[in-house]
Structure formats: structure tokens, C-alpha cells
Amino acid sequence: MSSKKLIIFLVIAAVLIIGLLIATSFLGKHKSEVDLSKKVKPITLTYWRTTDSPGDVSDIINSFHQRYSHISIAVRQIKPEEYERALLEAWAEDRGPDIFSIPLTMLGKYQSKIYPLPSYAVLEVGRKYVTQGLKEETKITLDKISLPNLRQLKETYIDAVSSNIISPDGKIYGFPLALDTLVMYYNRDLLNNAGIAEVPQTWQEFVEEIYRLTILDREGNFVQSGANLGGVDNISHLTDTVALLMMQNGTQMFSNGKASFNQPLAEDPSYFPGVEAVRFYTDFSRQGKETYTWNEAMPKDIEAFISGKLAFYFGWASERQKIRQLAPKLNFDSAPVPQIADTLRPVNIANYNLEVVSFKTKYPDESWAFLMEMTKPEVIKSYLAKTKYPTVHRSLINWQLEDYDLSPFVNGVLTAKVWYTGKNYSLVEEAFKEMIRDVILGRRETILDAINFCVQKVNLTL
After folding, report:
1. Mean pLDDT across 395-404
2. Fewer C-beta neighbours within 10 Å, C or N terminus of the chain?
């Protein structure tokens, strides 16, 4: 080949290569733009809840929508008694929410219905933004949202959360917005009338005050009751109250994956802390005992409290607003639950809802991005300010301790414990009711026999 022909060949080849590069670059850029445009396609995430009102999360939703304008969040509020049925019916029809809320006690039951936090390091969510300058342009970028590791979770959340939202296989199934703890509500007027100036901090002080707060008529009927302890069907939170007493007394509720609250102390095989806790609880319904203050003829405990006939009501922190709504003129307040005198390890019961992503969602990354944003400490403050719930974030505890209404609840969050994470809490509640009823009616030879039978039933739910 002559040198002239070689030059012509090389020129043609160069032109073809340059053209190919330009075309490839254009097509690649076009494809990239097309891929990014898919990331900002308008979508609506449906979010089902039972607690609070849609307005309580509106600030968070609006803030998220401002950043991700293509993502809308539609909240549906469902009555607690209808919630589980609504979920099951929706899933059976291959529909349902993208995000939903469940009590931690139901996590085991619905774990297969949840899309866990992705195992990859970051979530990628598309976002539109407008450039600044002489000519404003709408651009698309990918936000890379880092997912938390185990250490970050423990540093962010209190122990009652960080030790329970991670499954044995290392998966994270959801995040809570707030904590619920058992507290002791009290009627200020009834305590003042009985000459009680200070709320009891120990169970010994509590027992001494119950006698002064209990009033019976000539027929032996309660005119006024000291506390909602000792009963069965008219006690709202029997299971958690009895579990609290057991744990405060040193009972290990579970061991090696099985219920163990029927076992003696390891350091003293002759002492059964669970037995003594059940005895202490049921003595409040035994005639002849100085602590006699409740029976099955009493109305539902919450009704007795709002009607001014109950001095102490053991309930959840989340019930404060409900009590205020039902009894706006009731002069009541709250305090931490009593502890065993001189204890070095105070114990309280914790519960909370988990916000989770449905296994049916078509938008797992966007759903998890919303939950990640929603549960940031700096974002969740607006929700906590509206609902007056105790925080699950370590960094917000001091902030809430400055709130008069919240301080009794927040005081116990660091020592609060979740005692049950099985698959059927409803059956556990029935088992505990039967245990207490057996003890009160003497249907078992010993208290330990009643507890043993309860343990067998609880094990069936694990």
C-alpha cells in the first residue's frame, strides 16, 4: 500500500473512531439521563398506622416531600381493633401498604411479611434540584443514604431498642418513633385527702400508702380503691405489670430461648422470685390482707381512675392524652413505677411500635429512605413534641427531661426492658390471666404449679 493510500485509510479510520466515540458518549449520556429519570418517576407510598393521628407525622412527611418532590406519602389511620384484619385482607388480595406500623410484640408473628433493611451499604434515591445562576435548570441526582451498622444503632438507640430490632440472622426489620413505658398515674386529690404528701418510690412505701387510700362501705364494697393490682379481667395491663414485678424481683424471664420465670435464683436455689412476685400481686385482691384493694366486682381500672375512685393506675405513658380527653377535670399526675428498696438495678417495662416496610411494596428503597429520614433524632423531635411520647434516642433524653409532663416517663427509658418478643402475645396474655386466676381461686396446689402451667403455654408461642 502506497503512503498516500495509507494516509487516506488512517484519516477515514480516525473519523470513524471519533464518530463512534461521539455516538457512544451521546448514547451513554442519554441512557444515563433515561435511567436517572426513572429514579424520579412520581410515586405514592401508602403508610398504615393505628396510633396517634395523621397530623402528628405531617411535618415529617412534608419535609421529606420537599426534598423528594416525586415521592408522596399517603397516611391511612385504622382503628386498632380492625388493623390486623385489614392487613391480612389486603395481603390476601395482593395489595396493602408500602409501610406499616406494628407493636414489637407482633414482630415475630409478621416477620415474613416485612421487607428488611437492605444488606447493601447505601440506598440510592433519585432527587430533583434546581441549579442556581443566570439560567435555572432542573437536574437529577442520586442521593446515597448510608445504612447504619450495629455500633451506630447502639450509640443511637437506648438498649430496649438496639437489642431487639436486630434479628438473630442480623437483619433489621424496622425502627421505632418513640417508646412506651409503664408509669404510675395518681389522683392528686385522693392522695391529698389521705394526707399523703409524697408519691411512693419503693414498693414498701407503696404498700404503706395503699391501706390509707382504700375505703370500703359497711357491706365490704369498695368506695375507693388504692391501686389496680390483684385483679384479672378488669386490669388493663395485667401481663406487663406481673412481668415487671417478676423482673424487679430478679426473675430471668427467658433462658436459652425458653420461658424461665418459674426457675429459682441461680445463687439461691431455694428462692423463686417469680413465685414471690405473683404472691405480691395477688395479695392486693385477698380479703384480710392489709393490701386488699381490688376485686373482680370493680369496674375496668381505667374507668375507675377517670371517675376518681382509684388512687394509683399503672398504665402506659401513651395513655396520658386519653386520660386527659376522657376526664379533663381530673387532677392527676404521673410518676415512675416503684422499685424494690435499695435496689442498684431499677427495672421498667418497655414497649413500642416498629415502622416497617411491607414485603409487597414495589418501592423498597424509597420506603426505607423515608423511614431512615423519619427516625433521625433531629427530624423526630416534631413528632415527639406533638405526641408527648418518651424518646428512643439517647441524644434526646436530656431535652425531654426538661418537659414537666414527660420527665416521669423519660426517667425510666434507659432501664426499660422488653421482656417478650415471641410470635403470639395475645396467647401470652391469656396464659398470664389464667395463672393469676388459678392463684386467686386456689385451682392449683401451689403458686409455682400455676406458674409452671403458664410457662408451658408461653413456650408454645416462641
Report:
1. 94
2. N
